[in-house]
Amino acid sequence: SSWWSHVEMGPPDPILGVTEAYKRDTNSKKMNLGVGAYRDDNGKPYVLNCVRKAEAMIASKKMDKEYLPIGGLADFTRASAELALGENSEAFKSGRYVTVQGISGTGSLRIGANFLQRFFKASRDVYLPKPSWGNHTPIFRDAGMQLQAYRYYDPKTCSLDFSGAMDDISKIPEKSIILLHACAHNPTGVDPRQEQWKEMAALVKKRNLLVYFDMAYQGFASGDINRDAWAVRHFIEQGINIVLAQSFAKNMGLYGERVGAFTVICSDADEAKRVESQLKILIRPMYSNPPMNGARIASMILNTPDLRKEWLVEVKGMADRIISMRSQLVSNLKKEGSSHNWQHITDQIGMFCFTGLKPEQVERLIKEFSIYMTKDGRISVAGVTSGNVGYLAHAIHQVTK
Amino acid sequence: AYRTDEGQPWVLPVVKKVEQMIANDNSLNHEYLPILGLPEFRANASRIALGDDSPAIKDKRVGSVQSLGGTGALRIGAEFLRRWYNGNNNTATPVYVSAPSWENHNSVFMDAGFKDIRTYHYWDAAKRGLDLQGLLNDMEKAPEFSIFILHACAHNPTGTDPTPEQWKQIAAVMKRRSLFPFFDSAYQGFASGSLEKDAWAVRYFVSEGFELFCAQSFSKNFGLYNERVGNLTVVGKDADNVQRVLSQMEKIVRTTWSNPPSQGARIVATTLSSPQLFDEWKSNVKTMADRVLLMRSELRSRLEALGTPGTWNHITEQIGMFSFTGLNPKQVEYMVKEKHIYLMASGRINMCGLTTKNLDYVAKSIHEAVTKIQ
């Protein structure tokens, strides 16, 4: 007999299931709109030129492979903080922050969640927007926190339920934790406007909530790194000492290298040092110290002026392609003769789009047209190309007319 | 970390070669790996631990989870055990760590949620060797189903390993008392220079029918420290059990790091799956192991030639990167303050720090410390 006889089979991952089914499909017109990674206009993965250049520069330096410090590569963490906060940020210049390298967005979120579990004694409750990225809930749960929700997406309008959000947030008990997507909300693509962010900041400040920002798409959303970090910077300027998880998976295309960072804005540099020491105590029994390769690439890019310039152009290129596919999808739907309002497709931002399609319609798209997406009607715009946007529009029209 | 005879870090020649191959391969990109890691890495890594002819591999009852170094593998294993071993979410299952052990073992299991972490007798300071009787007694007295963290080879920090005969005795007690073996294998190949020899204990336990975990690190034997290359090898009773275990490990990985880093795993997978590169790697590993063995024998012979009080055979009988010299804290303080030789208060030295240039100085300093300070 086995120790593991009672271990249940884990439920299959819903998103992976989409890709599995797509792979099995033999239809030449098939489309994978479940993919959470950027694709170029030929539907291929895209390795940024600035990444290739950085890799060549790194190779020529013939560095050793000695362990990184527990908190990661200092050149990387500093550049990562500066990218998020802005070089003119008082918090950055005064040093009243600590940034540790994390295992991409997930690892950074998890370090933060564990840190809050251990040191934020005021509350166990983390408030997520409805809906949020599927992995947020299990991450916080495994860290020992409890999950709550605030209204966010309005399925009737396929946009932000601002009054619902403000209403719910106003009722969140003081000193709870609220998680906000800095830009390119996943999975809806619905972001607050700057005026709305201002009101939200004032409200969370009034409610004395601990703000946890998840920024996985800086630069990738609008094409402008400063614009995409606006909310994060505004909150800090309002005197809200946020915590922040960053990912460089999408904006630098470094998915498998696991490049991320977790930042805590503190009262002063001394507090930052103490927080850092505790973060290291959390990290050491998890994986000791983080992987070098991706952080080295990201650091090279951020800290080498020419490469940084090139990166900004390339990330804008990716964002522009996504934006262009959104607008082509809408214009193609009009051409097909669809009478529905598809404005939300171009109003939404980032990799993902909540189409508003119902489960039955999604099922038809999969079965009749070999167009694969998750049941909630979410599509990855990254999977749309100028070659297949017409087919997609045609199919969506067929199932919605 | 390993150091050359010039006291420098060493990137293995085979690693340099493979990195160049990877850099030149335009078909490669930076896409996500699967949650459990690079398939070619996982299969090869477990094959290295268990042997090409492993019956467990033939029976398809081996699973692998690519992890962030040995630490990451330990943590995923610990998290799984806390959720699924000896009941559901049984945080009371005792976890036994050797006295002494790598200090992070305690923290890993504690942060994974275990509430009862104990030590088992291991190092006999008086005779400077393994306290086998103490160890076996602890196992006899341990509650059924307790988890024991065993160092597969090159025990850290003592450098003292059980002999094959002693491992057999340990296995017999563990089987009788239904204790769970969790191997930590951070030095395979690096310890003796032979992959097979350094994996003997793990393979013996597998042949005795145990279900076990083995956390593997490729930090030292591939010199890939900062790329965080590790693997958790799971040996179960049958394929079905292992499949269910892996599906639950996926869930644990997903909330810890989602999927592991690709660079280091690619280097290892490429090396292990090419007969030529594999041979080259084994020879690089032997270079490192041989240098350490040479330093051990040179240090011992100098101490004996100086007539340093005490016996020094433990220097060559111990194995791996570390040696418990037997120096007491006062003698260590003398070494640090007067001779500027840095070692742990426990008397542990890193053999990699020895070079042909400093052997004489280190030997003389130990001699002074032992003769001047009691």
TrEMBL record, chain A:
Catalytic activity: L-aspartate + 2-oxoglutarate = oxaloacetate + L-glutamate
Keyword Aminoacyl-tRNA synthetase recorded: no
Subcellular location: Mitochondrion matrix
Residue ranges constituting the Aminotransferase class I/classII large domain according to the UniProt record: 29-396
Stretches assigned to coiled coil: none
Cofactor(s) recorded in Swiss-Prot or TrEMBL: pyridoxal 5'-phosphate
InterPro entries given in the database record: Aminotransferase_I/II_large, Asp_trans, NHTrfase_class1_PyrdxlP-BS, PyrdxlP-dep_Trfase, PyrdxlP-dep_Trfase_major, PyrdxlP-dep_Trfase_small
GO MF annotation: an example: pyridoxal phosphate binding
Record-level GO cellular component terms: mitochondrial matrix
Gene3D superfamilies: Aspartate Aminotransferase, domain 1 (3.90.1150.10), Type I PLP-dependent aspartate aminotransferase-like (Major domain) (3.40.640.10)
Enzyme class label: transferase
Annotated EC: 2.6.1.1
PROSITE patterns, per the entry: AA_TRANSFER_CLASS_1
Source species, domain of life: Eukaryota
GO BP of this protein: L-aspartate catabolic process
Keyword Transferase annotated: yes
Sorted UniProt keywords: Aminotransferase, Mitochondrion, Pyridoxal phosphate, Transferase
Annotated CDD domains: AAT_like (cd00609)
Chief place of localization: mitochondrion
Family membership: Belongs to the class-I pyridoxal-phosphate-dependent aminotransferase family.
Record note on quaternary structure: Homodimer.
Other facts: In eukaryotes there are cytoplasmic, mitochondrial and chloroplastic isozymes.
Name by which UniProt lists this protein: Aspartate aminotransferase
Gene name per UniProt: Got2
From TrEMBL, chain B:
Primary enzyme class: transferase
Aminotransferase class I/classII large domain: residues covered: 2-366
Keyword terms of this UniProt record: Amino-acid biosynthesis, Aminotransferase, Cytoplasm, Pyridoxal phosphate, Transferase
Keyword Nucleotide-binding attributed: no
Enzyme Commission no: 2.6.1.1
Cited PROSITE patterns: AA_TRANSFER_CLASS_1
Required cofactor names: pyridoxal 5'-phosphate
Compartments where found: Cytoplasm
Keyword Cytoplasm attached: yes
GO biological process per UniProt: aspartate biosynthetic process
UniProt GO MF annotations: L-aspartate:2-oxoglutarate aminotransferase activity; L-cysteine transaminase activity; pyridoxal phosphate binding
InterPro entries, per the entry: Aminotransferase_I/II_large (IPR004839), Asp_trans (IPR000796), NHTrfase_class1_PyrdxlP-BS (IPR004838), PyrdxlP-dep_Trfase (IPR015424), PyrdxlP-dep_Trfase_major (IPR015421), PyrdxlP-dep_Trfase_small (IPR015422)
GO cellular component, as recorded: cytosol
Annotated catalysed reactions: L-cysteine + 2-oxoglutarate = 2-oxo-3-sulfanylpropanoate + L-glutamate; L-aspartate + 2-oxoglutarate = oxaloacetate + L-glutamate; 3-sulfino-L-alanine + 2-oxoglutarate = 3-sulfinopyruvate + L-glutamate; (2S)-2-aminobutanoate + 2-oxoglutarate = 2-oxobutanoate + L-glutamate
Subunit-level organization: Homodimer.
Note: In eukaryotes there are cytoplasmic, mitochondrial and chloroplastic isozymes.
NCBIfam families with a match to the protein in the record: PRK09257.1
PANTHER family tied to this protein: ASPARTATE AMINOTRANSFERASE, ASPARTATE AMINOTRANSFERASE, CYTOPLASMIC
Family: Belongs to the class-I pyridoxal-phosphate-dependent aminotransferase family.
Protein name: Aspartate aminotransferase
Source species: Pycnonotus jocosus
